[in-house]
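lol ok so funny story. i was supposed to be doing the assay writeup but got distracted and ended up predicting the structure for this chain instead. priorities right. anyway since i did it might as well share w the group, maybe its usefull for someone
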Amino acid sequence: MRKPVLLAVFAALSAQAQTWVTLHQSQYATWVTPDYNKVQTDKYKANIDSIATELDAAIPLITTYLGIKPEKQPIRVEIDSSTEGLGGWAGGGDVGYQISCFFGRPKNSDGLRWIRGVVIGEVINASTGAVTDNWPRDWWVDDVWYFPGFMAGEILKTTVSDEFSNYWLTSESYPTYPVYNVFKLLLAEQGWDYWKRFFATITADKMEWGKIGANPSKLKTDYVIAYMGLAAGRNLGGTMKTAKVSASDSVEVAAIMYVERGLIEADKQKKSTASAWSDFRAGNYASAKTKLDAMGIVVSVRFAEGPSMRAAAPRWFSLDGRAVPEARSPLYLIQRAGSTQRKP
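and the output, tada:
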């Protein structure tokens, strides 16, 4: 899989020193190039126009599928004069690509094949970056590009065709990557509502991955997987470990999930949770749990590991990870002292 190159100089800085020429303008994207690169962009205008049209169709699908969108719209798309190969970047809400991405080849247009997916993937990065930055670089983006690649493949089915999507994914070896296949499995199981729940929960909880552990780190990995599990209704720690996310720890994932549910319950009970949330958002879920314990908050969450909810019998655990008798709630059971309440 060819991975886009993250450039160190962002558009906001370069824009101050350059005169830019607009190549394409729509409600979704503004394509620009430095004035000194205009001869090159004119030469490959047909290729650039075709990709720009496909991106205009792709951007609204990001919101339809994931419930998120780029931080800035229209998004700024820069084409620079580099010709070293195929490269792209996302930063500051903008995206950019080398002019050589648009050269193409006589058969199958290798450069154009690559960029047709990558142009979507970089806008996916800009969109997830608007939720929070600093996603795990070892299994989400940057070093591997599993999530943007997964989304590019899905969107290409609509903007181009199923056949081209399969061709692009296979050419970039995505079906051979276990994490990609987990993303596909979750989509097949629960539809796009799953991914909408995932991003909506992160947003509602005001999570910022940059405040949680180094990148990469076990702690950051387990937090992100915990939120994937909250959206799925089960602990995905073991599934991701099997998918070769080596840092994944299902015990820690479970603990993070339980504390998040406890904080939500404490908020419902109108407890004073500011300090506990602050700890949790900084990666100190253990301290947050101690504060929940002091409030008398106890939460039980169904803990069913495995690649499919239908493939594993559910087990139930308390906030501290101890097994409790199976409950009747289909997803979460909120237990209070002397009472039991189902969570909608």
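Residues 11-176 form a domain with the Neutral Protease; domain 2 fold (CATH 1.10.390.10). Strands lie at 20-25, 29-34, 75-80, 88-91, 94-98, 298-303, 315-317, 332-336, 339-342.
back to the writeup now i swear
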